[in-house]
Amino acid sequence: MSGGELGGLLADAIDAATGDGAAYADARSVESQRQSLSVNGPTVETLDYGDSTGLGVRVLVAGAWGYAATSKLSRDDAVRAARTAVEIAHASATVTSAPVELVPEPAHQSEWSTPVKKDPLAVPLEDKLALLTDATREMGRRNEIRSARATMDVVKQQTSFLSSEGASIRQTIVHTGAGIEATAVADGEVQQRSYPGSFRGHLGAGGYELIEAMDLAGNAAQTADEAAALLVAPECPSRVTTVVLDGHQVMLQVHESVGHPTELDRVLGMEAAFAGTSFVGIEDLDRFHYGSEAVNITSDPTSPGGLGSYGFDDEGVEGRRADLIREGVLVGFQTSRETAAKVGAARSNGTMRAEGWENFPLIRMPNINLLPGEGSLDDLLADVDDGIFMATNKSWSIDDKRKNFQFGCEIAWEIKNGRLGRMLKDPRYTGITPVFWGSCDAVAGPEEWRMWGTPNCGKGQPGQTMRVGHGTSPARFRNVSTGVST
């Protein structure tokens, strides 16, 4: 169905909703295509391709939300979804104690697209599989490698949004990524190394050029060598010491201990049933010391290349950068039009997103970025007499308020007199969020900063999986408890 035809259905849905008494209505169509590949050695493990098209209608009636969706793309079905949403809102209004209010937002008339040099869906399947198997062949040259795996993922999503306020927005978002994993086994010991990151590698906003730039085959031998070396490496010691984290691990640290607790629906208790709440409150704004002066973190859907990059969120709010932590102090939250009104803000910062057409939008992280400091990774290491450098996330555990955590990494090295020493296996570190960020005394500079992607962030009931981004540099933390991952 063409964009014009879908736009006509959305307009019909809004007319039906407002005609039935909705004070506000928006309608959103989503057309998505997905491709997922994985190979293990020379064998193709998975080759999945899917597409989905549908629309959803969100309405406000008597201060309460209603939502309904359909995959049937006819005028009658669009109107039926709108009227069902109105019925649900009427029912919700009978148990709503505080009517929903929305902060103003201009009625945008716009189009936005991810910059793409090479359409990943147009690349022949044979070329993609050849790229992956070239990498697995290189990893498999070592006898210790029992599993040499490579993956690739592509998502293309076209969204149309109309509102009763007059907004009309069309967006095309393309996400592309790949990665390799080498698993080494010997004498009952199992170790894994990943490149360029764990959990299906790295994904970003862009085309096939992102995958070609990774040079998977060129990095395969080192990935396999490190997996094999970990088999005989000593364990990470249990002690309190200085820890330097690579950008990939800092990415997950930001995601779990800053991204989630600054989602305003969590802070207000609106997501407590599944996602948990937050250890910070509204009263902490502009006064709570979340970290040291070296810690500056933003919410920024305008960051190039991020999985959380977009022009407009799923309630038609233009994406814009907002400070969350400035020189260590909590100064902002991720908001929606509804939650911004609850805390007296003049405008939402545009972080409402939904997985697909069938789901109601929630506050979801866009790109939550740790701003760079100064210097290189070598500069961070040079000021450490005795410590540990950890790289590439392996595991995580954090409480539902996002305060107490334990993270494991794939690999570590001793730091002795400012230089990397022995390799260490199964490293982990623990901490309390404000204490840990308070111990951060240095963040590497722009030359080390890069955008990472997290494709599997879960939230909501029913659950929604969202792709989010994090720009990070390596960072240094003092007086951290370390040990062995279990």
Brief overview, please?
With 486 residues, the protein is of the alpha+beta class. The chain is built from ten helices and 23 strands.
Structurally, the number of domains stands at 2
Shape: globular
| Distance, first to last CA | 51 Å
Average residue pLDDT: 96
Taking the sheet with the most strands, its summary is: 8 strands, mixed
Radius of gyration from the alpha-carbon trace, in angstroms? 24 Å
- Total E-strand runs: 23
Low-confidence stretches: none
Separate helix tally: 10
Report the portion of residues in β strands.
35-45%
Category by helix and strand content: alpha+beta
Helical coverage, percent range: 10-25%
What would your notes on this structure say?
With 486 residues, the protein is α+β, with helices and mostly antiparallel strands. It folds into 2 domains: 3-230, 2-Layer Sandwich (PmbA/TldD fold); 239-484, no CATH class. The protein is 21% helix and 40% strand. Strands 1, 2, 3, 4, 5, 6, 7 and 8 form an 8-stranded mixed beta sheet that branches. The protein is globular. The model has no long low-confidence stretch (mean pLDDT 96).
